[in-house]
Specification:
Elements: E1 23-27, E2 33-38, H1 39-49, E3 52-57, E4 64-68, H2 70-87, E5 93-98, H3 104-119, E6 123-129, H4 138-151, E7 156-165, E8 168-175, H5 179-241
């Protein structure tokens, strides 16, 4: 949206000296209603509290303004928006292509990819590609699609039944889990793996300490033997003089 001067209209609220009204309905720092006060009085209170006077409802009569730390407010709002975008689930449709007479090993590999996509909460478009005389045997592709759907029924369901599209046959599988649930489980699994690695690291340190302990004991025993030998030596000399 553009103004007549060619510049974009600011969407940020007016603050402090930018507010141009004779009086405002003031809200305090803790959300308490102060009431309708002159603008000069509101600005004076803002300075007293070392806060900003922010216009939060410009269309009201008089406009509603609140005392707040505007810099902190903008930072927290940006962080919340960033977190919301991070947790936002985008529906993704993955595609997997197969041949009617696919090799068993290739089938297992393709099925593994489909399983991974469904676990991530994504839809999967399965395409059977017919070539040459295979076009006269559409039942081969249909049976293959039904087999695949049966193999992954614990993770997904047939959202779009198999249908012929030129030389191809297409089926769409939908995940049982929503994208947000899959993302949450993935984060929990990642946190569990991190905690497990940290636990193993602590266990290794404890094991290293236990291995070092016997060495210290042996050293102590060796020192004790030396002290005993030195203690016994003068006794022998005294016996010889006697």
């Amino acid at each position: 949206m553009w103004c007549y001067r060619g510049g974009s209209i600011s969407t940020e609220p007016r603050i402090n000296d930018r507010i141009r009204v004779p009086e405002v309905r003031l809200v305090g720092p803790s959300g308490e209603q102060v009431g309708i006060v002159p603008l000069a009085k509101a600005l004076e209170l803002a300075q007293e509290y070392d806060l900003d006077l922010v216009e939060v409802a410009a269309s009201a009569r008089p406009p509603v303004c609140k005392l707040m730390d505007y810099g902190k407010f903008k930072y927290e709002s940006a962080m919340k928006a960033r977190e919301a975008r991070k947790n936002q689930a985008h529906t993704v449709i993955k595609e997997m292509k197969l041949r009617p007479k696919i090799d068993p090993h290739d089938y297992d590999t393709k099925k593994g990819h489909v399983v991974r996509f469904l676990k991530q909460g994504d839809k999967v478009k399965i395409t059977i590609m017919f070539r040459g005389r295979e076009q006269s045997r559409p039942e081969l592709g249909y049976r293959l699609l039904q087999r695949l759907a049966s193999d992954v029924e614990d993770l997904g369901f047939i959202e779009s039944n198999p249908k012929q599209d030129g030389r191809n046959m297409i089926m769409v599988l939908g995940p049982h889990k929503k994208k947000t649930e899959a993302m949450a489980e993935a984060r929990e699994a990642q946190a569990a793996r991190k905690a497990e690695r940290q636990g193993l690291a602590v266990t290794d340190e404890e094991a290293s300490d236990e291995e070092a302990a016997p060495v210290e004991a042996e050293t102590t025993e060796a020192e004790t033997s030396e002290v005993e030998a030195e203690t016994e030596a003068p006794s022998d000399e005294a016996n010889a003089e006697a």
